[in-house]
Amino acid sequence: MSAAVKRMEKAEGEALLQITGAVKTFAPRPSLATLLARLSGRPQPSVRAVDGVTLSILRGEIVALVGESGSGKSTLARIAAGLLPLTAGARQLGSAQATREDAARARAKARNRLRAQMIFQDPLAALNARMRVIDILTEAPLVHGLIKPAQKRAAALEMIDRVGLAEGVLARFPHQLSGGQRARIGIARALAVGPELLVCDEATAALDVSIQAQILNLFLDLKEKLGLTYLFISHDLAVVRSLADRVLIMYLGRIVEEAPCEELFAAPNHPYTRGLLAQALTLDVKKRVFSAVKGEMPSPFAPPSGCHFHPRCPAAMARCKLEDPVLKPVGPARLSACHLNDPT
Fold this sequence. Notes:
Elements: H1 3-10, E1 15-26, H2 32-39, E2 47-58, E3 62-66, H3 73-81, E4 88-93, E5 96-99, H4 103-108, H5 110-113, E6 116-119, H6 123-126, H7 133-143, H8 152-162, H9 179-191, E7 197-201, H10 209-226, E8 229-233, H11 237-243, E9 246-251, E10 254-260, H12 261-266, H13 271-278, E11 328-331, E12 334-336
Parallel strand pairs: 3-8, 3-9, 6-7, 7-8
Antiparallel strand pairs: 1-2, 1-4, 4-5, 9-10, 10-12, 11-12
Helix pairs in contact: 7-8, 7-9
């Protein structure tokens, strides 16, 4: 048994990542138009991509984040990885906390930030087209003093062996690799600085089905060997069900349901979750009629009042238009934000 796995078992139940009341607002970039609007007193358009999200990820856990495009998943993923600063709230990775007030101090702790790394959806766009694979893999370890220049090739060989690639890829540029090879290089680059948390933003979405299976198996193998923890974002509910320990459902910047994976698929609580599962593909596609979530997601520039999902919810009540539902327990290890759970 590896030392990493022993550490993971010893730390079972310990939170590796904690995000509390996270808010991320995007405002328009300063320009003459925004300056004139401000001087005239007109309200400035802004998007609250993440709206008061609180989550915790335990060491060794695989947590899936699910929701439609535009729900804020990628923004939350970048917050979890430490790539985006918070507008409000707090993010704590291990024992190191970063808030809006101490952002400068958090930036100085670069070594701690290496503990969370991100794997992006498009591996070709995420890799520097002008760098060979050996330089892509060793750039961060060299910058952070994890290896010496003389150890560059040996370190690169170890990295590609870890993800199942041969030595010949080291001299190639990203465009000379297949999609599966680029995905593996992206994983190897993330692992090069010894992270504890991998944030995977649709990391298999751009791959063929057979290659997806190989990459998912690689993720599981690395979890066992290195004691990794994952935040996994995916639209593929079949992948989520086979991979995740716990699932978070996100809608328009808010977490609306959280539950252990099998329990969520067996008995979804929130109407939005039920809608997502109802339109998921299954093997008996010829025998069923798919029921998509009706309507379109509202504009994040002008989200609905009360429950953000109420314009599309088949069970919406008058209360849903006025009051924000609170994410609260609806069972053991289960949370849901829906007024239907309140006693009548």
